[in-house]
Amino acid sequence: TLDLPPEVVAAIRGARRVMVLTGAGMSAESGVPTFRDAQTGLWEEFDPSQLATAEAWQEDPRFVWGWYAWRMHLVRGVEPNAGHRALAELARLREVMISTQNVDDLHERAGSSVAAHVHGSLFALRCTDCDSPYEGEVDLPAEPEERLVPPQCPECGAHVRPGVVWFGEMLPEADVEATEAAIDTLQPGDVTLVIGTSGLVFPAAGYPAMARAEGATVIEINPTETEVSDMCHHVVRGTAAEVLPALVAAVGE
Ligand code: APR
Ligand code: ZN
Q: pLDDT tens, 182-218?
């Protein structure tokens, strides 16, 4: 297996609690494109201001809905990767709290419980106007479709929207509070894993520094340097599906 820096193994082995902060890189090896990676990044191919803002939704709900419905189709068609499964295993060895920026359900499908989805959840559809959750059927296209009409709210007839947080929108309070409360309770000896995030989007990008301020040992798992690398005590330059199984195996020994 991958040779991990001994101080990283020691930190995890000695940890009472492990707080896990994940971003799109966590799901990359499942086949879900990240946002800002060179060549595969979603924001290379699609314009976020046309897709991930409330204005874009007001402007053209069919295009925005068609894109998110395609992403739901994509996530439905992939599996959690060895990294997701390793984190589910870790929760059997240590107290684990996961706060993710990801809107997919791959952590849950790998068996993890996720304390916070700070950018919402793809599958948590709700009414644009009356906020009622939408549990009805949706037809999911294999490609982004510009003309896809969003489902209609059975309560008030308005458009149903994706349950994700768009740029400029408020984050779900309960998820932010759960994350910040968990960070507040971190103590020296605890570990925070920062996995697969570029550290560009706030407030999530501020969480590693907050964890460090509480005395936790912060470890980044990411093949490349990020905006939060210098907040971390240790960095493991590898991928989630390679590093996490090796880390969890080392803890279990
Ligand atoms: N394993 C671990 N990390 C990886 C892998 C992998 N297999 N592949 C890529 N990465 C890393 C990249 O190096 C990059 O640092 O994952 C990170 C992905 O960065 P982004 O695409 O910016 O994703 P993220 O940080 O989650 O974006 C934050 O931006 O568009 C919004 O709401 C969206 O939640 C998202 C937010
Ligand atoms: Zn409604």
A: 999 999 999 999 999 999 999 999 999 999 999 999 9
pTM here? 0.97
Q: Are strands 116-117 and 126-127 parallel, antiparallel or unpaired?
A: unpaired
Q: Is 197 annotated as a binding residue?
A: yes
Q: Are 197 and 22 in contact (CB under 8 A)?
A: yes
Q: 237 CB less than 6 Å from ligand 1?
A: no
C-alpha neighbours within 13 Å on the C-beta side of residue 117: 20
104 within ligand 1 shell (Cβ under 6 A): no
195 vs 236: CA distance, rounded Å: 10
* Dist. CA 97–CA 186, nearest whole Å: 11
Q: Is 68 annotated as a binding residue?
A: yes
CB atoms near residue 16 (< 10 Å): 10
